[in-house]
Design goal:
Number of helices: 10
Structural class: alpha/beta
Order of helices and strands: EEEHEHEHEHHEEEHEHEHEHH
CATH architecture: Alpha-Beta Barrel
């Protein structure tokens, strides 16, 4: 059985790691290079780096900071934020990223997914799905959650998978930063409807929430930020807790 993955997330703004609630009210969470190195040492399975203001500020991801983080890592490293072309991905992979995450540009130009998969392979293309429950429907939001769309989560996820993306990163904006648990019902439906791995994001507040994401939500990986940044849940203890509940972990 494939092991489940625990993934800390570095949300980057102005070169610092930040964390908010429901994508707003950001507070400083530390130096990204130092945090990345610490997470690798603690046993994180992967690391995600999201330049959360790149798209809004109409600029590219901080490639030099990506290089400095990658230099300290020996675990898979996914980078997202402001990615809109094959050239953007080429630069980030050259600077040490193992995978890239695309969101806004892919919704605006779905053919970008095809182009990236053709050039770099499915294994390094992650599509991020930032969604909020609106009137009973999960709708995709763009530009760090600031721009709502009429794009429905599950139909878009199926299209993304059919276009060859290797993985989905689903963040429930309603749950993000609340520490009330992941959106497990939506997670489970996503896992049923696509045949590629789904990463759960948004809502981690306890070790039990991670177990629920894997058992109820059928997620392949669980991503979190503040509970790791502020030392509320140590990764080694979390992985032991999950393993004790017969959830396959790399320890």
């Amino acid at each position: 059985m494939l092991t489940k993955r625990i993934i800390p997330c570095l949300d980057i703004k102005d070169g610092r790691t930040v964390k908010g609630v429901n994508f707003v009210d950001l507070r400083d969470a530390g130096d990204p290079v130092e945090l990345a190195e610490a997470y690798a040492a603690e046993g994180a399975d992967e690391l995600v780096f999201l330049d959360i203001s790149a798209t809004e500020e109409k600029r590219k991801t901080l490639a030099d900071l990506v290089w400095r983080v990658a230099e300290r890592l020996d675990i898979p490293f996914t980078v997202g934020g402001g990615i809109s072309s094959v050239a953007d991905v080429d630069l980030l992979l050259h600077n040490g990223a193992d995978k890239v995450s695309v969101n806004s540009a892919a919704v605006r130009n779905p053919g970008l997914i095809d182009a990236l998969v053709k050039k770099f392979g499915s294994q390094c293309i992650v599509v991020a799905l930032d969604a909020r429950l609106v009137g009973g429907k999960w709708l995709i939001h763009l530009v760090g959650g600031k721009v709502p769309t009429e794009v429905e989560l599950f139909s878009w996820a199926r299209e993304v998978a059919n276009r060859g993306a290797g993985e989905l990163l689903f963040t429930s904006m309603d749950h993000d930063g609340t520490k009330g648990g992941f959106a497990n019902e939506a997670l489970a439906r996503l896992s049923r409807e696509v045949n590629i791995p789904v990463i759960a994001s948004g809502g981690a507040g306890s070790m039990a929430h991670f177990a629920d994401a894997f058992l109820e939500g059928q997620a392949d990986a669980a991503l979190a930020a503040s509970v790791f940044h502020f030392k509320e849940i140590p990764i080694p203890e979390l992985k032991k807790y999950l393993a004790d509940r017969n959830i396959p972990m790399r320890i």
